[in-house]
Amino acid sequence: MNQLKLWLGRSPFAQALLLTLFILVAAAGVYFSDKSVISFLLLLGSLLLLYLTTFRTSIKCGIGAVLLLAVIPFATSGGPAHQSYMEVATQCGIYIAMALGLNIVVGFAGLLDLGFVAFFAVGAYTYAIFATPQANKFISGHWFPLPGGAFWIFIVLGGFMAALFGLLLGLPVLRVKGDYLAIVTLGFGEIIRIIFNNLDKPVNITNGAMGLSSIRPPSLFGLSFTFPNQFYFIVIFILAIVIFSVKRLEYSRLGRAWKAIRENEIAAQSMGIPLIRTKLTAFAIGASFSGMMGVVFAAKQTFIDPTSFTLLESITILVMVLLGGMGSVPGVILGAALVTILNLQVLTELTNWLNQLTLQGIIHIPNSISPSKMQRLIFGAILVLVAIFRPNGLITAKNKRVDAERLKEQRLGKALSVLPPAKQQSGGVGQ
């Protein structure tokens, strides 16, 4: 087995052949079956297999783009479960973007945030209020709902509003850290939810607990986006921007400042890192990603209410970051996808299958331990097992490798280039 791993690691051709066969088999299983959860999971797993190859980053990005934009949409279009598959993939993309935003705050900067779903709610309500007639109740005139083309502007606007709320959260909590920071952010998340729940009087802005319905779907060049397979491409586009931004930030000067604060605030401050500005930047950038996906969520669901943004959602996003590996971009992507697929598809399908066996009389499960009641228990048990056997996450964060000798040579060359030229001493006999 070890020799096979070594041979695969040294042979890019063998890796490409194995990856191609794996994708073809999984895609054929999805395309030619009415509904095959296992084949769909294997098709999504091909992205993980691609990450484990030794190809160059540019090649991985190219193959990944082909998989996401062509192979997965085409393979899932062959049966009646097309929209079901696309719904799971779309939800995965939304939660991955939010988990990457929280990873900036928790994984990079080391600031424990338990109210992250508040920024998701801000983005969702920013679009929902103006994409429904609700805005007419506090703005004179009948200008609303806005046309579907305004959705593309609201993606940016929702991210900006969430970033603004991130700054408002960051300002009062800069003096606290650790457990106290977690308590303050938890309270902030609940305050935002309660405000949206009660902001129906004296001026009706959010319609309170009744929520906002009939949210206008986005449109582009006359095409209306109403189905999950259409929202899938919107999510992939935004997710690509989020991943690119996070990867650029990770090893930038700002990213290194976040990690320095995470390791030791006093040492970071003594090195000249501005704590307040750096922490506020982490809150703002992380919140903006969540706000953008909140806009997409509101447009896709066409209905939102305060119950969509509870503390459980914040905990779930935090679990995605911890499960994948704090500070690890590929780990957070894997953790978010795994948790979303478990909740939306795997455990749901397992529950339905066990219920069918019970109805057919093949097995007998007491009502007290019915699958529908044990779904959260199974999910919790899986998380506990992962935490025990992979305490640092599924994919541990790795620091960027630096060639020390090459770095010394570069510094020596720069030092020599700035030295003044040696003065020539005149010879001969003094006068």
How would you characterize the overall build of this protein?
The chain is built from 16 helices and four strands. It starts with a helix and ends in a 13-residue tail after the last helix. The protein has helices spanning 2-10, 12-31, 37-52, 57-76, 82-108, 117-130, 151-173, 179-198, 228-250, 253-263, 265-270, 275-301, 311-324, 329-359, 371-389, 404-418, and strands spanning 212-213, 219-220, 223-224, 303-304. The radius of gyration is 26 Å and the shape is globular. Helix 6 crosses helix 12 (275-301). The strands form two sheets. It has a two-stranded antiparallel ribbon with strand order 1-4. Strands 2-3 form a two-stranded antiparallel sheet. It is 68% helix and 2% strand.
Uncertain residue ranges: 427-431
Radius of gyration: 26 Å
Distance between the termini: 86 Å
Mean pLDDT over the full residue set: 85
SSE sequence, one letter per element: HHHHHHHHEEEHHHHEHHHH
Strand order of the largest sheet: 1-4
Residue share in helices?
Answer: 55-70%
Work out the number of β strands. Answer: 4
* Class based on secondary structure composition and strand pairing: mainly alpha
In percent terms, what proportion of residues is strand?
A: under 5%
- Main sheet summary: 2 strands, antiparallel
Total count of helical runs of at least 4 residues: 16
Anisotropy-based shape: globular
